[in-house]
Structures are given as structure tokens and as C-alpha cells.
Write a structure and sequence with these properties.
4-stranded parallel sheet, single chain, about 35% helix, alpha/beta, about 325 residues, about 20% strand, 2 domains, Rossmann fold
Length: about 325
């Protein structure tokens, strides 16, 4: 997860398989060639001596990356809170039916060992964290290999700032790497090609230049706003859809900004992440009632759009999010 205290998980209950536009194939066996496999993960070469057989994942987006590749038969379980709505109606229903739900919290070493896991797929603030001793190095000492979600790779700029490449590139990188590791490269390349084609189709119709609406992503927070910098998935979901992320200059993925920044940049659209105990409607009510935001264009004109958590973190649902937001931003541009 991004941060347990600031961002829970979300998933729209009305999301149907057709709406996601996913091409769901039968589960892949995940056969690989002989010998070790070397991948580049977070800028470092990592060699895996064998194909993992009991993968444990943390978070909905990461879990669905495995499902999208048809690798549920390689999984020993997943961890995620239970506030994501109905997961039985999504394109990867078969994966959720087959794979064990290990924990409604973040992964622990105990979860992994109890599941006899031999590989953990997680990310920094999406499971991996030093304070709990749940890190790739700690798992290695237990004989468990790991892979770090590329969106969450630390970039060394300041503190624990994350993000080393554009977010959709991170998605494609992880699909390609997992495809190579698990011997499903053709399937991975088909997914990548389909995702690129769908996003390009939205870009071709998107507003251009000065017609591109200014967009702010609101995740949570009242004293300050938890939002997305240029290395989080919303950056490219917004830009490919035809908008301009008003926090593009922040060299981090998920981060916090003051309301004065939001007011100064005057977004014309606010995208709300729907998740957890605080509903999208409650968030909209807060934004509309916040005295500092009363003159912000998006609030004055009631241009507040909702996407799900799983749309807004690295996941196979990112292309569908671009399509949905793209349609909305075209309407906003046309109404000017």
C-alpha cells in the first residue's frame, strides 16, 4: 500500500469485466526455460535461480498483475484489506476464486512462511517497509526471493521518494519482467501491446495545448492533501487522458502537499480516489465545504470525478482509467 495511515485500498463495486476492457485468457502454466533468469529491478540486476512456485503478493494492483498474466496457479496467496468492494465481478474473478486471501493487512514474514511462499511481489509502501523488518533483504535471509513493484522503486532524491520512470513505463516493465521470469513472455507482450493501443486511442482524441484541463488528484487528508507527483500512476493517467497534473513538478510518487498549493494552481478538475472508510461522496462534501477551496475552479463548477484505488496505482486497470477519465476531460474541454 502507499501508506496505511493515509491511503487505504479501493475498488468500485460496479466495475464489470466488460467495463475494464480486459482481455482475459485461460490461466497460463508459467513454464520457463532452463537456467537462471536475470532481471533489472529498481535499477539493479537480480538473478533468480528458479521459477517461483508459491508467490505471495501484497495489494490489489500487484495481485491483479499476476492474474492478468494468468499466473494464479503460481500463487500461494495475497494480502489486502477487505475494503475494495466486490472482487468477484472483475475480469480476474477466476484468480480471486483460486488464490487464498492470507491477510486483511499488509504482508508479514509470518504470512509468507505460513503459506510456504518462495517469492514475494510487493513494493515500498505496498508491503515492503523497514519499520516492520519486511524488506527484500530480510526475506532473502529466510530463503525467499522477491520483486519490487517498479512504481515504488526509491529514486534517492530525498528521503524515501519513489519513482524511477514514467508510471505506464513502470507497468510495462513489470509485465515484461514477470513474463520473462515465469515463461509467459508472449502473453506479457500481448498485454503491453493492447494497453499501449488503448491509451494511444485516447491520446488521439484528447484536448491539446491550452485546452488541456488542469487536474488535481485528491486521495485523502484534511490538514494537507495526499496526492500524486509525477512518478505515481495518476500522472500519466491524467496526461494521457488529456489533462495536466497540477503536481507534476513533485519528484515523487504518492506524497503530501499543502492546500495553498492546490489553490494557487487552481485545478479545473479534481479526481477523487474512492476507497476505504471515507467514501467518495464524503470526500466531495469535504472539498466543497473547505473554505480555502471555495474559489478553486473545480469546486466552483462541480467538476469532481471519481476513480478507484486500483485504477490509480500501478495495475492492469490503468488503461481503463485513462479511457474513463479521457471521456470526462473531453466533455470538460468542450464545455468551456
Amino acid at each position: 500500500m502507499r501508506k496505511l495511515t493515509a491511503a487505504a485500498l479501493c475498488l468500485a463495486t460496479t466495475l464489470a469485466a466488460a467495463g475494464c476492457g480486459a482481455q482475459v485468457e485461460p490461466s497460463a502454466a508459467g513454464k520457463s526455460g532452463s537456467g537462471p533468469v536475470t532481471l533489472t529491478n529498481c535499477g539493479k540486476k537480480v538473478t533468480y535461480d528458479k521459477v517461483p512456485e508459491r508467490v505471495v503478493t501484497n495489494d490489489v494492483g500487484i495481485t491483479e498483475l499476476m492474474f492478468a498474466l494468468g499466473l494464479e496457479n503460481r500463487m500461494a496467496g495475497f494480502a489486502m484489506p477487505d475494503d475494495k468492494g466486490e472482487v468477484k465481478s472483475v475480469p480476474w474473478k477466476g484468480g480471486y476464486d483460486k488464490v487464498r486471501w492470507l491477510s486483511k493487512d499488509q504482508l508479514t514474514k509470518e504470512n509468507v512462511l505460513d503459506a510456504k511462499g518462495d517469492f514475494v511481489f510487493a513494493g515500498w509502501n505496498y508491503g515492503f517497509r523497514e519499520d516492520a523488518g519486511f524488506t527484500p533483504d530480510a526475506l532473502k535471509k529466510l530463503g525467499v526471493s522477491s520483486y519490487v513493484l517498479t512504481e515504488s522503486c526509491r529514486n534517492g532524491r530525498t528521503g524515501d521518494a519513489r519513482g524511477i520512470m514514467p508510471p505506464l513505463d513502470a507497468l510495462h516493465t513489470d509485465l515484461a519482467n514477470l513474463g520473462k521470469l515465469f515463461g509467459v513472455e508472449k502473453r506479457a507482450q500481448r498485454l503491453i501491446a493492447d494497453f499501449k493501443k488503448r491509451v494511444a486511442a485516447v491520446e488521439a482524441k484528447a484536448p491539446q495545448g491550452a485546452d488541456r484541463p488542469r487536474v488535481f488528484l485528491y486521495d485523502s487528508g484534511q490538514d494537507r492533501a495526499f496526492t500524486a507527483g509525477r512518478f505515481a500512476a495518476p500522472e500519466q493517467i491524467i496526461s494521457k487522458a488529456g489533462g495536466r497534473n497540477v503536481t507534476h513538478d513533485v519528484a515523487d510518487s504518492w506524497t503530501t502537499v499543502g492546500w495553498e498549493t492546490v489553490v494557487k494552481r487552481d485545478p479545473e478538475v479534481i479526481v477523487v480516489c474512492d476507497y476505504g472508510d471515507v467514501s467518495a461522496e464524503q470526500k466531495k462534501k469535504f472539498l466543497k465545504s473547505h473554505p480555502a477551496l471555495r474559489d478553486v475552479s473545480a469546486v466552483k463548477n462541480d467538476k469532481i470525478f471519481t476513480l478507484d484505488y486500483v485504477d490509480l496505482v500501478e495495475s492492469p486497470r490503468n488503461p481503463a482509467a485513462v479511457e474513463r477519465l479521457g471521456a470526462y476531460l473531453r466533455k470538460v474541454a468542450d464545455e468551456r
